[in-house]
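cron nightly-structures :: item 1 of 1
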Amino acid sequence: MQSCKKATTRTWGWSMTNRVTLSSTLPLTLIGLAILAEPGLAAEPTAAQPDDVAVFMQAKLNHANDVLAGLALADFDRIRRGSQKLALASQASSWQVLQSEEYARQSVAFRRACERLEQAAREKNLDAAALTWMEVSMKCVHCHRYLRDDINRR
């Protein structure tokens, strides 16, 4: 018995039609995602809702975890990127949950500590980065305590 196999354009389960569709939509999808991920290009919410604050706080924790992982692994690029992201987050409108001189002062102190952390990472000075990370962490603790106290005073 003679076997005849018909030649097909299928490879790995994808037909040529699927490949053309994928090759034309994938770049557009990636461009769209890049635009949404780019700071300032995506639409910013007008008012921070509780869920927005929770999402923002989780992002801050993720950046902080990146710094800590970078310290544990002596990955200076990771420390630098995490500290940059934390400093940038402190300038976002979602950060400004309270309008007071003390809150503004604490935000500036936090940014400066993040800048010192970034500098220690650029200098590849692990000890300085670790000590500065403790300073950044203490800025977080003090500011959150201030916010809790402010809520309790109301």
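cron nightly-structures :: done
DSSP finds five helices and no strands in the chain.
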